[in-house]
Design brief:
It is a single chain. The protein is α/β, with parallel strands linked by helices and 416 residues long. The chain contains 14 helices and 24 strands. The strands form 6 sheets. A 4-stranded mixed beta sheet has the order 22-23-1-24. A hairpin with a 2-residue loop joins strand 16 and strand 17. Helix 4 runs parallel beside helix 6 and helix 10 runs parallel beside helix 12. The longest helix has 14 residues. It starts with a strand and ends with a strand.
Length: 416
């Protein structure tokens, strides 16, 4: 098993290109089950979760090819079972449920796994699909869904679930009649999926708002599509540049989709300049503490909570971070404390008091974004930081150490 070794204290200087979005690419890959004809996707990041999705598509009867950052998918003989061995490693696998029910009237999908950051039950997905005519039973760790034909329905989510909205967008695209989704997720990745479905011939409107309308069509066709840039990867490198100081240009940074994050970093005394083709990040004065509350989009994203906490560890003053999305997303706190951070937990809130310096130490990653926060903190810590369990990082960051090394960081891999 590999670990990441960081020698901290180096200012960053140069350009980092932001890769394609993992959280957009995963549902888009599941949507490739739907069309008659070949799909060509560009700007797909080379990540562990992407390879897992492609293996799942192969098992479900698709022919796939992944070359560079381009993916080709063609459905040959669609199957209906997503096995435990794949689904246990990646929560997004459950997104095959909607397409399989819509096309085959049946889906047998293992209960999903992924990061251990909270319950994240799929009941919102199933409840909505039941309104469209599906029936479900849970047996031997599998969700078994059946229907004669999915039909449009007026669905109001109890919570703006990203995965639930995505599953329903795909299912409703080829269902009978009109489907209306209220209290739908507004995240940019949901919008990207809707744009991809429309490129294949779907009739979706209102994506980006809390009310989405889908007019079902009889079939979809193949298409070419470019996946959006990864706003969380961009935010992570923004955090790295902020904590280390220096000048870093984030090429292909999705600034509009990062508005809530940019606002908080500006309040922390980071100079951000939107330019043609990306974002210039400069920080030459001391960081300032801020208060942060995670919210569904367009609020501050939960996937950036750990990274901004790492920056606040070295900020002047203090700040409170309140986590309102997941109930178990402070597992990085104890690891940051090992580096010398001053953080107090109370329920879903963390009080962070800035310290004068962090000192390198061995730390252990517990999930994808926690891993990223430990890398951010390690870049600024004095001495050597060893980040263990970096397989989490490989799920969400393409060429992380290469990108950081190119802007002056000292980061490399070793065997544990």
């Amino acid at each position: 098993m590999e670990k990441l070794v960081i020698e901290g204290g180096k200012p960053l200087q140069g350009t980092i290109r932001v890769s394609g979005s993992k959280n957009a690419a995963l549902p888009i890959l599941m949507a490739c089950l739907l069309p008659e004809g070949e799909v060509h996707l560009g700007n797909v990041p080379r990540l562990r979760d992407i390879h897992t999705s492609l293996r799942l598509l192969n098992i479900l009867g698709c022919e796939t090819d992944f070359s560079g950052n381009d993916v080709r998918v063609l459905v040959r003989d669609l199957k209906t079972e997503a096995p435990y061995d794949l689904v246990k490693t990646m929560r997004a696998s459950v997104l095959c449920m909607g397409p399989l029910l819509a096309l085959k009237g049946e889906a047998r999908v293992s209960l999903p796994g992924g990061c251990a950051i909270g319950a994240r039950p799929v009941d919102l997905h199933l409840k909505a699909l039941e309104q469209m005519g599906a029936e479900f039973e849970l047996s031997s760790g599998y969700i078994h869904g059946r229907c004669d034909r999915l039909r449009g329905a007026h669905i109001t989510f109890d919570f703006p679930t990203v995965g639930g909205t995505e599953n329903l967008l795909m299912a409703a695209s080829v269902a009978e009649g009109e489907t209306i989704l209220e209290n739908a997720a507004r995240e940019p990745e949901v919008q990207d999926l809707a744009e991809f479905l429309n490129a294949m011939g779907a009739r979706i409107s209102g994506h980006g708002t809390s009310v989405i309308r889908i007019q079902g069509v009889t079939s979809l066709r193949g298409a070419e599509y470019r996946v959006m840039p990864d706003r969380i990867e961009a935010g992570t490198y923004l955090a790295a540049a902020a904590i280390c100081g220096g000048d870093v240009f984030l090429e292909d940074c999705p600034c509009r989709e990062l508005d809530a994050v940019l606002s908080k970093f500006r309040a922390m005394n980071v100079n951000l300049e939107e330019q043609d083709g990306g974002l210039m990040v400069r920080r030459h004065d001391a960081l300032q503490g801020v208060d942060v509350t995670t919210q569904p989009y367009p609020g501050f994203p939960t996937d950036m909570q750990a990274q901004i906490m790492a920056c606040m560890c070295l900020a002047e003053g203090g700040g409170v971070i309140e986590e309102k999305i997941f109930e178990n997303r402070f597992m990085h706190v104890l690891e940051l404390v090992r580096l010398g951070a001053d953080i107090r937990l109370k329920g879903r809130s963390a009080m962070v008091r800035g310290v004068s310096s962090l000192v390198g130490a061995p730390v252990m990653a517990s999930d994808l974004r926690a891993s990223a926060s430990l890398v951010v903190a390690g870049l600024a810590a004095e001495g050597r930081t060893d980040v263990l369990r970096i397989y989490h990082l490989d799920r969400g960051y393409e060429q992380l150490e290469e990108k950081l090394t190119a802007v002056g960081a000292r980061v490399w891999r070793e065997q544990e």
